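Let's sit down with a protein and look at its sequence and fold side by side. Once you have written the record down, we can walk along the chain together.
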Amino acid sequence: MSLSKRFGAFGVAAATLFTAATVMAVGPGAAQATADRGAKPTVVLVHGAFADSGGWSGVTRQLLDDGYPVVAAANPLRGVAHDAAQVKALLQSIDGPIVLVGHSYGGSVISTAATGNPNVKALVYVAGLAPEKGESANELVSMFDGSTLPEALRPVPLLDGNVDLYIDQKLFHKQFGADVPAREAALMAVTQRPIMAAAGDEGAGEPAWRSIPTYHLIAERDVTIPPATQRFVAERANGVIKSVDASHAVFVSQPETTAAFIKRAARETA
């Protein structure tokens, strides 16, 4: 049975969450100040479902330590067009070159948000989706076997008739962060943010990966977005590929590796 039929949408696996105390995101103003000094490109990080910008804390520390200005965007998780519009506005507030990074469903968002913005020099997909125009997350994830996400989702009907999707806390660790310490995964499960179910069926906009260089970090032990899907979209975009032995939450379990890959994209597209 397709994910669409299970809950009406992909419900996309996402980045992980930390508590507010771990958030290391830098606001656009701080990033702008650094960019104006003519140094390195601003790295904009976009989380996926069941997450918030604090999930990038480990990666952010690595980037800040190496002098990169960083903005961790707040992804509303309401739908591709809506979310991409929010990120697009944020990108337009940043002067100078940008490396745009998306995890999981965040990949669909950055693919649309970056279109037409000449400042975006590279797109980095971390266990992420890179859809073609009109292609949905559901279509991509169901293209290959391997995702156990449908069984882990718990729907919450909303008063307006929509449905929010959460991952069952008991299944959260195994579902997309199996290589994250259990205590940390438990915190992530408690603090997760939902994605609207309809987001998974929504077709993406004009893809920026047709004109912007792409980099794809493929999580080979991912049971949320099959590695075969990650590889398919990477090869279709003629992107640079790096495979890692990691779960869907690769940027939490391996922040150094993830940050190094983002830095590589920044150097090679400068």
About this structure: The chain is about 35% helix and 15% strand. The beta strands are 42-46, 70-73, 98-103, 120-126, 153-157, 163-167, 195-196, 214-219, 240-244. The two ends are 45 Å apart (CA to CA). The domain at 3-268 is CATH 3.40.50.1820 (Rossmann fold).
